[in-house]
Design a protein that fits this description.
With 302 residues, this protein is mainly α. It is 74% helix and 0% strand.
Length: 302
């Protein structure tokens, strides 16, 4: 019975990830609320720290399902080896990947190097210092306000960049700086990069699309790092100093949530791309402010 309950929780977490990873509303803000009321407890009997380690890995690795939706939906724009493509088209795909690599540099520096430095100096990584209800709620509200302000500021301005082929390497790097800011929980990776794209002069559709592509190395890298950390923990790098057996139900829960995240992401991405062709991001700004206020009030009362 307990496994069924955990499976239902995982199903909902997959849905939350699939929706909120791509809409600029912060997946962290939603997951932290869900965790407060319906925390995963799978494997609690194995080790005092097992649940925390598993959940930390789980919440990052299910992003692999979400990112696979981007690969599937934009396969033609991302795969440079198609025989149907001309030499010029293949060159264009490679240029897109080079721009994505350039855009990934700032987040890689902060997310990997600085994170490790802070952990070595203080005993806690960036998430350890910042992953709490107050920080998440403030970031939700701040970026919600920014979305509304920037949409009004850009209302009568014509976009300078309407296609990924027009993005310069300098602009790609600047978008990477905005993505770097998403290391603060509650910011939203897609929200930060889309906001940055709009400030630089991208159209909403171009900004959203390139934001999706930027997520591929960021999310794959993050998932691998968390997975390796978890395997180190169960391999013996824990307070007991012995290897731990991960129960089958834990892997099943992870697999189910990842598959659900993939399926829901397919729908979410299509929805967002169609939505931004006719509407602004202001409604997402309002939603972020309301959610941020709810999270802040809840944790203050708690």
């Amino acid at each position: 019975m307990n496994f069924i309950i955990e499976l239902i929780k995982a199903l909902f977490l997959g849905i939350i990830e699939g929706i909120t990873e791509w809409l600029p509303v912060s997946s962290t803000g939603h997951i932290i609320l869900f965790d407060e009321f319906f925390p995963l407890t799978v494997g609690a009997h194995i080790h005092p720290d097992f649940v925390g380690e598993f959940v930390e890995m789980f919440e990052v690795v299910i992003q692999m399902g979400a990112i696979m939706a981007v690969v599937v939906l934009f396969w033609d724009k991302l795969w440079p080896f198609s025989k149907q493509k001309s030499l010029e088209e293949k060159r264009g795909v490679w240029q897109t990947w080079f721009k994505v690599c350039v855009a990934s540099v700032p987040a890689a520096i902060v997310g990997i190097v600085l994170d490790k430095v802070i952990e070595e100096l203080t005993g806690k990584d960036i998430d350890g210092w910042l992953y709490n209800g107050v920080v998440v709620s403030l970031m939700l509200i701040i970026y919600g306000v920014l979305f509304i302000i920037i949409e009004r500021f850009n209302a009568k301005k014509e976009a300078k960049v309407t296609d990924i082929s027009q993005i310069s390497y300098v602009q790609a790097f600047l978008l990477g700086v905005f993505q770097m800011m998403a290391i603060i929980p509650g910011t939203s990776r897609s929200g930060a990069t889309i906001l940055g794209a709009m400030l630089i002069g991208f159209s909403r559709t171009c900004g959203a699309e390139f934001s999706f592509f930027m997520g591929i190395p960021a999310m794959v890298g993050g998932s691998l790092i968390k997975a390796l950390g978890f395997f180190d923990f169960v391999g013996g790098d824990n307070s007991l100093g012995v290897a731990l057996n991960v129960p089958l139900e834990a892997w099943v829960i992870l697999a189910v949530s990842t598959v659900i995240a993939f399926a829901v992401s397919m729908i979410s991405i299509k929805f967002l791309m169609n939505f931004v062709k006719k509407h602004s991001f202001a409604p997402f700004g309002v939603y972020r402010i309301v959610l941020g206020a709810i999270v802040l009030i809840y944790f203050m009362l708690k």
